[in-house]
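Trying the structure run again after the queue cleared.
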Amino acid sequence: MAAGLTWAARAAGSALLTPATPAESMFGHSPRLWVRRLPYVVALTFTVILLPVTVNVLVNDYGVPGAIAGALATAQTAPLLLALVRPLQAWWIIFVADVVAAGVLLTAPGTEARSWPWPPAAIVGYLVLMVFLGARESRRTLVAVWLMTAVSGGLLELVAPESGDGTSLLLFILSGVTLVCVGILRGRGEVERKLVEQESISEAERSRRTLLEERARIARELHDVVAHHMSVITVQADSAPYRIEGIPEAAREEFATIASGARESLIEMRRLLAVLRSEDRENERTPQPGLDRLRQLAEATVRAGVPTELSIPEISLVRALAEVSPAVDLSAYRIVQEALSNVVRHAPGALARISVGLHGEYLTVVVVNGPALGSVSPLEGSGTGHGLVGMRERVRLVGGELDTGPLPDGGFRVAARLPLAGLDDPGVNIEKEPRPE
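Done. Tokens:
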């Protein structure tokens, strides 16, 4: 028991001598100016009110000399301004001043008919100090302060039991209730702040995960495109000596080397992308869609309850299918698919217009939808923008441009401008923006 009491005394002493927070203004990190200024207004108001009141009460009611009353009143109220930055140091000053004032009042002529050891003004100032202290210090420090308040009041009551009128117990209860209430509000504020921080982190992680998933999906789809061309190279290089007569031996060896390098590239590509295929093995043999599948996509969207209009001239479609690269062909289809999915989720029942055309060496894809019908509830109340992340990645991949944004009537517009041949080196374009760490 003695060891336990010794440890408790040391812990309380350490808590009362070591501030839990650095010397900084209360609510100093708040983005709102009025929140940062509010503690100063409260502290200054109570100081201006309590200082003359305390002096008047000590002089007129208790009969304390004016000089002593002024010094005690200043020590009991002025540190409230210090409590905004250093609440624990301010508590020491006010606590000592209250105890000294109790000793002075014990010998004052007007104490017999007045409150002792804590006058009403001292109780009010002490409770205001508890608010500032509870908002900044640790729980162990607050418990130690509360116990010191009880011990000091109890010792003073023992010294002069005939002078006490129960204000020690009153201050003990009120200070405890104040600390508990401030602790609850402080805990709630910390929980809300952590929730906001966690929501920000979660949103960033969702955006990052969406970006990585879309890149993985693009990598799987590009694997099909590249693997097709590599397979063609392999077949042509292997069959060249049999299709072309009179090929020199050196040329035969060169074709064999090309075929061997193409096979090794295919093997390495499949090995590196095997992990990307692990979650989607059912659709590995499904041909990748392109511009020739836009009509089926529009019809499926109509069946989903969204009226859809597709505008793509037959001549433009024939030329696009003949000149567009596989990566651009696939990217254009995916952009239209994601845009229509957003219409279904956020604007059900709205008319969606798809326009695809050729302008010089560029393929333009525009998807415009009107506002959602008032009688139909959207499947999602607010968008996260993750679908636009995938669109931007695909446009960046082929070196194109993407323009998205709301329309004045409440609709939305997605416009992509893609070069027919794509990029010679898409990796250069992708590195223009920093990758997520």
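Strands lie at 308-311, 352-359, 362-369, 401-406, 412-419. Worth checking whether this holds up in the mutant runs.
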